[in-house]
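User: Can you predict the 3D structure of Spore coat protein U domain-containing protein? Sequence below.
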Amino acid sequence: MKSVIYTWLILSFLLAAPKAMARWNDCYGSMLATSNPSEIIEEHNNRVTVYIPIKIKVSDSLLDCADEIWVEDVYYYSMVFSGPTQDKYAKLYDSQFKKIKVRNGIWRSDLKDRSTQMWVRLRHYSLFPAGAYTGHVIVSVVKNNEIIDEQYLDLTYYSEPQVAISLSNSSKGKVSGSNGNYHIDLGELKSNMRFNWGIKILSNSSYDIVVDSEYNGLRHETNTQALIDYSIRFDNTQISSSGRLHRSYNFYPGVKNKWYGFEFQLGNVELMPAGTYQDNLSLTVYPR
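Assistant: Sure. Here are the predicted structure tokens for Spore coat protein U domain-containing protein:
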């Protein structure tokens, strides 16, 4: 009888031991990686910087056993975003916007909390050319360099068509105003007098330009029937004050300021009533 009991105890120990070791080595749980486009951060300084969010959430069981989060590009050793004109290379930052180290194409971060915030940084020397920028990454939760769970995640940044207009440097002493509203004082009006100025347009897309006169000439401030014709030459195209100019410009890679010149020439002022004359000349840029 003693022999039977002794044998049973040894067998029970040998059968139970592997189960205990399996529980010690086991690591399991759930992970969710997301990227919300509404949380994208844009910074406009000397160059444009974009931060695309990645948020990783893990279950308590996974937090207790895993030790790292890995992020890697699906296709390349670098993190690459395809864009409308060229590919952009990204870098990965932690929640405090500190650079995460990369080794052999894998960005590694310690797993410390149930929720981890990361930021993918894209940068351009000027406005991003308009369009969608898309990257594809794999987010993994790891224990001892073994992947426990992973998820494929698409990242997207959309650059809206934008345009900015400013005076050229040579015009700042002759033209007053700011923020799109400018004033030119022609002084005493003389027949055929001329005035030149220029503007700079910065755009990340193709655009249309419309130049138009509100009064179809310089109008007397009280005698609205008194009108002095003039002509405008814009980008080597001339129109009369009663006309309307419409030009289309296509976008080419490399966003930079483009200069456009205006040349104003007054018509005949003989026998016109004395007084102050004014017109509102508009230049409107429509990105497309």
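Residues 1-24 have pLDDT under 50 and may be disordered. The radius of gyration is 34 Å.
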